[in-house]
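Teaching assistant's notes for section 4

Start the section by putting this record on the projector. Ask students to predict, before seeing the second block, whether VOC family protein will look compact or extended. Collect guesses on the board.
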Amino acid sequence: MTKRGPLTDLGPIMQLAYLPSDFDAAIKHWTEVVGAGPFFLMENIQLGEMTYKGQPSDAMFSVAWAYWGDMQIELIRPENDAPSIYTGEYAVRDQLHHVCIVVDDLEAARAALNAAGAEILIEGKVGDTGGVFYADAGGGPGNIVEYVKLAEGGPELFAMMREAARGWDGSEPLRKLG
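Reveal the predicted structure now:
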């Protein structure tokens, strides 16, 4: 039997994330063609103590989240040109950009990433109680995995979005948060 890699048991993929060339057209496609939605928009996000490849970065981005069944879809719009995975070599557009796994223990995720020889591209704080890593385990652009410990209130926010998608009638496809 082949030994499974060190990243296997960190958790299931809960999100597919995209960096569309045309953010509004992507919302329209996902809601009207695919049937995901409604999308919830959070604008001008900056991670606390964010680093990109070990160097401080003040990258700012907006995201829209929706559910397609039990899978979360994330659409990302960079708001500045600061170094990040949304600019430069990792900014693959109009295809899968990254997947996300929610973890309870970021240090266990860091240890598994180190064991796999992965490069942590982005590290930062999410609110006062959460944190995140975006890592390349060798697949390069389009193969990033996000490991996030949700901040307090995060699970409830995502549950509200998932519930809004159940039986959604197509009205108000984009809703602003905060």
